[in-house]
Structure formats: structure tokens, C-alpha cells
Amino acid sequence: MKKIEVKELKDNMFETISKEWMLVTAGTKDKFNTMTANWGGIGFLWNKPVAFIFIRPERYTFDFIEQNDYLTLSFLGEEHKDVHKICGSKSGRDIDKVKATGLQPLFTENGSITFEQARLTFECKKLYADMIKPEDFIDQSIIDRWYGEAHGGFHKMYVVEIVNVLEAIS
Fold first, then answer.
1. Mean of the per-residue pLDDT values for the chain?
2. Of 33, 77, 118, 141, whose CA is between 20 and 30 Å from 88?
3. Number of domains forming the structure of the chain
């Protein structure tokens, strides 16, 4: 993978995140977990390029994010939906997702984890986090639609600085 500048990105990130999905990965070379996500975005905040993601505390990856300063957002391309299905429906508590999917881990200089199959990776440093709170919703219908017994608990939102953008070498 080669490093590029954020300003060199060609993706429409609305399309990339919502349709292609991403793997959120955190941990160390010795122990990490990854999960599929498609709730988040990128922007500019505090004079930094940032991403924001939402993770439910009951997810196994949540503890890895909490315990580490860095995480990655890896985009594999729509041809890897089979990987996303496993990483989005199975828990790393129960299976080895790398083995089950054939993902090939790569480690950055900062010790973050991405995968050989990734066409694009954001290596990110945590800046801010807060729990989504039911009392702060202006549109209460969102709670009924996305939370509760049928869906799970409230997410924690993370704002992360994009410290490196890595692109697959064509």
C-alpha cells in the first residue's frame, strides 16, 4: 500500500461508506478484531481531517477500540461483500474472522491493522468519544427504528483523526 494525502481521495465517501461498507479494526498485532460498519462519515473538524463512526458497546470490537489509541477503516470494494457478511454477523468472540474470511493482515508503522485486500484504508487516532443518549434525540422516531430489543443498545460515537490514508498499489 502507498500513502496518499487526504486531498487526493477520489471516492464519493457517501457512496463508499453506505454501499461498499468498511471494516473497523482495532487492537495489536497479537490480538485484534474487525467488524463491518456502514454508519459513519468523514469531514473536517478542529482543523483536522476526521472520520466519525458509531459502535455498539456489545460488539466485541468495542473493547479493542476502547483499549487502543488507533484504529483503521478499511474499504475492500463491493466484490468482498462475503467478507463483510461474516465480519458483520459473526462475533470475534466465537470465530477467528481472519481465518473464516481469508483476510491477510497488514500492520502499519503505528501498529494499526489493515488488510491486503483493502483498496483504501484510513488509519485513525481517537480524538473524542461519547455515548448516544436517548434524551438528546430531537427526532424520537429514530429510537424506535434503530434501538431497543430488536436492534441493540445505543452506539458510542467516535471522532477520529485520519492520520494516514493508504491506497492499494494498482
1. 94
2. 141
3. 1
